[in-house]
Specification:
The chain has about 450 residues and is an alpha+beta fold. It is about 40% helix and about 35% strand. β14 and β15 form a beta hairpin. The protein starts with a helix and ends with a helix. The N terminus is likely disordered.
Length: about 450
C-alpha cells in the first residue's frame, strides 16, 4: 500500500510538474479545460447507459401485434374443378350442295346472312330439263291412249253401240220403275185394277233383266281381249309416268332451298359459276343453341355424370362466362389420347358464341355436402400438391394458434378441410405466412378490407 501511494504520488507529481511550470493564467485555463472535458465525458457515458437501459425495458414491455385478415370456416357444398379446352359447335349444321350439274342462274351474296328453312338460296339453269319433261309428258299421253284402246276394244263402232245399248237399258229401267211406283200408289187408293199393277211390275222386271244382260255383254267383250296386250300397255303407261316423275324431281333440284334456319357461315360458289353435282354451295349453321364439346381424361370422366354443373369461359374476350350442365357423356374413349368427349348445351340467342370457337370448360365433380370450407389462402401446404398443411386460427383474445389440417377437394378460391377444423373457427387468410404460434393479431376492419379490394381492382 505504501509503495502504491508513493507511485501514485510520483505520477501526479509528474503530471503536475509541467502545469506548475506554466504561467498562472495559462495554468488556470488548462485546469478549466480538463475539468470541462471530464464533465462532458461523464455526461455522455451516463446518457448512453440510460438510453440503453430504457430501450431494453421498452422492448421488454411492448408486445408485437400483427394486422391480419380473417374469415370463418363454414360448412357447405364443394366440388372438384376439372378443366379442359373445348370447341363450340352449332346445334344444327348443313352443307348445301347442288344435286344436278348446271350453271348457277341466280344466287346472291349470302355469307353472314340469316336464312329461313325453305328459303330459296340459289336457282340453277333448267331449260334443258323443262324440254325433256315436255317430251316425257307427250309420251305419257300416247301410252295412256294406247292402253285405253286395248282395254276398251279395237272396234270403235262396236264399243259405241255397246255403250248406247247400256245407256238405253238404264233409262228403260228408270222409266219402268217410276211407272210401277205411280201405279202402286193408284192401286192402293183403288184407282186401278191389280192386273194393271202386275203388268207394270212385269215391265220393270223385264227392263232390269235387259240391263244386266247388256252389262254382262260388255264385260265379256272386255275379258275376251289379249291379257298380255293389256299388261304391256299398262307397263308402258307406268314407265312414261315414272319418266315424268324423274324429270319433275330433277327440276325441283334446280331450285335450291335452305334445309334449316340459321346463319350462312361459308359460301363456296357464286352466281354465274358452274355447279357440279355434289359440289358444296354454302354452309348453314344454327347457332341459336350451341354444343361445347370438350375432351376429358377417361379417369376424370369416370367421376362425371349427366347433369353435373359446368362453367364455360370462351376464349373470345367479348364473350362472358356461362353456366350449364353436362348433356351428353360419350360412351366411347379416344384410344389415341385416352379422352372422353363431354357435351355441354348452351343457349346462344344473343350470338355471343362463335361456331368453331374455343372455350374453357370447367366441370364440378365429386360434389360434397356439409363439408368444412375455408379460403385457399388460409392454408399453408407443405408442398404445392400436398394434402397436409397448417392453418392459423385466432381465439377470443385475438391470439393466433397454429393448427395442423388435412385438405380435400380444392377449387380456385376454396378448399375442403377433412381433418383439423370443425367449422365456425376464425382463420387467418392474409398475413398468416411465417406467423409465429401465439402471436397477438389485429383483425382488419371491413372498411380496410374494402379499401384493399378497391386498390386491387385499380
Amino acid at each position: 500500500m505504501v509503495h502504491e501511494s508513493n507511485d501514485q504520488a510520483r505520477a501526479d507529481s509528474t503530471l503536475v510538474e509541467p502545469v506548475k511550470s506554466l504561467p498562472p493564467n495559462r495554468r488556470r485555463n488548462v485546469v478549466i479545460a480538463v475539468v470541462a472535458s471530464a464533465f462532458v465525458f461523464i455526461t455522455l457515458v451516463t446518457l448512453i447507459i440510460w438510453r440503453s437501459r430504457s430501450g431494453s425495458e421498452a422492448e421488454a414491455e411492448v408486445t408485437p401485434t400483427v394486422s391480419v385478415k380473417v374469415a370463418k370456416a363454414e360448412k357447405g357444398t364443394i366440388a372438384a374443378e376439372v378443366s379442359a379446352i373445348g370447341t363450340i359447335w352449332p346445334r344444327e349444321k348443313a352443307d348445301v350442295a347442288a344435286k344436278v350439274s348446271a350453271q348457277i342462274k341466280q344466287m346472291g351474296l349470302l355469307k353472314n346472312r340469316v336464312v329461313r328453312a325453305g328459303e330459296v338460296i340459289a336457282v340453277l339453269e333448267s331449260r334443258d330439263l323443262q324440254a325433256q319433261r315436255a317430251e316425257a309428258v307427250a309420251a305419257l299421253n300416247e301410252a295412256r291412249a294406247n292402253e285405253r284402246s286395248i282395254v276398251t276394244g279395237t272396234i270403235p263402232k262396236t264399243n259405241a253401240e255397246d255403250q248406247r245399248s247400256l245407256a238405253d237399258a238404264r233409262a228403260k229401267v228408270n222409266t219402268a220403275r217410276a211407272t210401277f211406283e205411280r201405279r202402286r200408289a193408284l192401286f192402293a187408293n183403288g184407282g186401278i185394277s191389280k192386273k194393271d199393277l202386275e203388268a207394270s211390275q212385269l215391265e220393270l222386271t223385264t227392263a232390269e233383266d235387259e240391263l244386266r244382260l247388256q252389262e254382262q255383254t260388255i264385260a265379256l267383250r272386255t275379258r275376251s281381249l289379249n291379257p298380255n296386250d293389256r299388261a304391256l300397255a299398262a307397263a308402258r303407261t307406268t314407265q312414261a309416268q315414272q319418266r315424268v316423275a324423274t324429270l319433275d324431281a330433277q327440276l325441283s333440284y334446280a331450285t335450291i332451298r335452305s334445309p334449316i334456319t340459321g346463319v350462312v357461315t361459308d359460301q363456296f360458289q357464286y352466281e354465274g359459276e358452274f355447279a357440279s353435282a355434289g359440289g358444296k354451295l354454302v354452309t348453314i349453321a344454327d347457332t341459336s343453341t350451341v354444343i361445347v364439346k370438350a375432351p376429358f381424361s377417361d379417369t376424370t370422366a369416370s367421376q362425371l355424370k349427366t347433369g353435373d354443373a359446368v362453367k364455360v369461359l370462351p376464349t373470345d374476350e367479348s364473350a362472358e362466362e356461362m353456366h350449364g350442365q353436362i348433356t351428353l357423356l360419350s360412351r366411347a374413349s379416344d384410344p389415341t389420347n385416352r379422352t372422353v368427349e363431354v357435351w355441354v348445351t348452351l343457349g346462344n340467342g344473343g350470338g355471343k358464341l362463335r361456331a368453331n370457337g374455343a372455350a374453357q370448360v370447367t366441370v364440378f365433380a365429386n360434389s360434397k355436402n356439409d363439408a368444412v370450407i375455408i379460403p385457399v389462402s388460409a392454408v399453408t401446404l407443405e408442398m404445392s400438391n400436398a394434402t397436409e398443411g397448417t392453418v392459423m386460427v385466432t381465439d377470443a383474445q385475438n391470439i393466433a394458434h397454429e393448427v395442423k389440417v388435412t385438405t380435400g377437394i380444392r377449387t380456385s378460391d376454396k378448399i375442403e378441410i377433412v381433418e383439423g377444423l370443425q367449422g365456425g373457427e376464425t382463420v387467418v387468410v392474409e398475413g398468416n405466412y411465417a406467423l409465429p404460434d401465439g402471436t397477438k393479431v389485429e383483425i382488419a376492419t371491413e372498411e380496410e378490407k374494402k379499401e384493399d379490394a378497391e386498390e386491387e381492382k385499380k
